[in-house]
Amino acid sequence: MNVAFFLTPKKDVVYETINSTMRQALERMEYHRYTAIPIIDEEGKYVGTITEGDMLWKLKNTPGLDFKNTNKVSIKDVARNVRNTPVHVRSDIEDLISLAVNQNFVPVVDDNNVFIGIIKRSEIIQYYYNKSLKVIE
After folding, report:
1. Which burial class, exposed, middle or buried, applies to 59 when counting CB atoms under 10 A from its CB (0-12, 13-18, 19+)?
2. Where are the domains of the chain?
3. How many CB atoms neighbour CB 129 within 10 A?
4. Do 124 and 137 contact (CB within 8 A), yes or no?
5. Non-local CB neighbours of 110 within 8 Å, separated by 6+ positions
6. Cβ neighbours of residue 131 under 8 Å, at least 6 residues apart?
7. pLDDT tens across 107-118, in order?
8. d(CA 101, CA 121)
9. φ and ψ at 103, to 5 degrees?
10. Residue 53: which residues within 8 A CB-CB, separation 6 or more?
């Protein structure tokens, strides 16, 4: 089975660009109730994942920084502590599962390392759960 089976396409994914501000990322994450989102660069390539914790540590460790002026801080200036390793769209299911064990979502890239979407761990679990129910019946 190909990992593309589980793909949530980029158009349906909440993400930020590397030039976005902390404020933009925080507000987007709050609105969607996410704790982490992918970051892509100007060429559409996946560059990492930013978390609420990353931004909280930036607020705590930057003198004079408060929520009001987070619109002046680029997310490229926020240290990221979580590395969600991407999977290639043509990878096999074993590669995907080995990453999903430790990641809530797995970013998916194409042949040019361009971000094309994510695969949610919950969808993998749901698929195999449903499959196991069919075996039991």
Report:
1. middle
2. 3-136
3. 9
4. no
5. 88, 89, 116
6. none
7. 999 999 999 999
8. 8
9. -130, 135
10. 35, 81, 82
- Residue 54: pLDDT band by 50, 70, 90 thresholds? very high
Integer Rg of the chain from CA? 17
- pTM equals 0.88
Report the chain's mean pLDDT, rounded to a whole number: 94
State CA 34 to chain mean position distance.
Answer: 10
> Domain spanning 3-136: which superfamily?
CBS-domain (3.10.580.10)
The Cα–Cα gap between 62 and 72 comes to 13
Q: What pLDDT sits at residue 137?
A: 64
The DSSP secondary-structure symbol of 136 reads H
Mean pLDDT over 67-73 rounds to 95
- Judged on CB neighbours under 10 Å (0-12, 13-18, 19+), 137 is exposed
